Amino acid sequence: VDVAACARMSREIARRLEGSLESYRLEVSSPGMQRPVSTLEHFRRFAGERLRFDLREPRAGRVRFHGAIRAVEGTRVVLDTEEGEEFRVGVDEIAEARLEMDPWKRARARRAEADG
């Protein structure tokens, strides 16, 4: 949702509430650049993005990993770890996952595309 959509919604809410309340405050928030990733659909949507994830049970003596989402296969997520290894894990084995988005990634991609 962009700022223009928020502005339209704010005007519509104000129109509908006009006269029914003394005052109100409309707050809009975003999950941010470190948004939680918890469902298979989230992992599909953010394929290619980096994330930090914690497992419910240790693997190779670790619970915390960093990497990029490569794919979703059935109920498993395929990740490329920072160490360059492929990591397959069931979504139910992940205690918490959060994106580590690069705010400049899209701008660099557009610039590279424009440069040919």
Short synopsis of the structure:
This protein is an alpha+beta fold and 116 residues long.
Gyration radius, to the nearest Å? 20 Å
Largest sheet: 5 strands, antiparallel
Number of helices: 3
Name the CATH superfamily classification of the domain at 40-103: Ribosome maturation factor RimP, C-terminal domain
Q: Widest sheet: strand order?
A: 4-3-2-1-5
Low-confidence stretches: none
Strand content: 25-35%
Q: Termini distance?
A: 30 Å
Helix content: 25-40%
- Structural class category: alpha+beta
CATH topology of the domain at 40-103: SH3 type barrels
Oligomer: single chain
Shape: extended
Domain Ribosome maturation factor RimP C-terminal: 39-101
Protein name: Ribosome maturation factor RimP
Domain Ribosome maturation factor RimP N-terminal: 1-33
Keywords: Cytoplasm, Ribosome biogenesis
Description of the structure:
- The protein is of the alpha+beta class and 116 residues long.
- It has a domain at 40-103: Roll (SH3 type barrels).
- The chain has three helices and five strands, in the order ααβββββα.
- It has a five-stranded antiparallel β-sheet with strand order 4-3-2-1-5.
- The mean pLDDT is 88.
- Residues 39-101 form the Ribosome maturation factor RimP C-terminal domain.
- InterPro entries: Ribosome_maturation_RimP, RimP_C, RimP_C_sf, RimP_N, RimP_N_sf.
